[in-house]
Amino acid sequence: MTGFVALALGLVLVVEGLALALAPSRAEDLLAQFVRMPHERRRQPGLAAVAIGVSPIWLARRLGA
Questions:
Q1: What span, in angstroms and rounded, lies between the C-alpha atoms of 46 and 24?
Q2: What is the largest CA-CA distance in the chain?
Q3: Which residues touch 5 (CB under 8 Å, ≥6 apart)?
Q4: Distance of alpha carbon 43 from alpha carbon 60, whole angstroms
Q5: pLDDT by residue for the chain (65 residues), tens digit each?
Q6: 56 half-sphere exposure, CB direction, 13 A CA radius
Q7: Alpha carbon of 57 to those of 2, 25, 38, 54: distances in Å?
Q8: What is the pLDDT, as a whole number, of residue 62?
Q9: Whole-angstrom distance, CA of residue 61 vs CA of residue 35
Q10: Per-residue model confidence (pLDDT) at position 65
């Protein structure tokens, strides 16, 4: 289980790092837009990310990872 958590965290860091490394100015633009959003509107992408993220986790666990 600990290995699974470490793998998941590592994958998140790789994806986030690539996004910032490949398009830093776009990341700044997106963050500026995010700050201007009302709190309730910010919650929606977070909940969507959680819902989308559960699927590959469930699939990986189902396949024996």
A1: 21
A2: 42
A3: none
A4: 26
A5: 677 788 888 888 899 899 889 988 998 898 899 899 998 898 998 899 889 888 888 888 888 86
A6: 9
A7: 14, 31, 30, 5
A8: 86
A9: 35
A10: 64
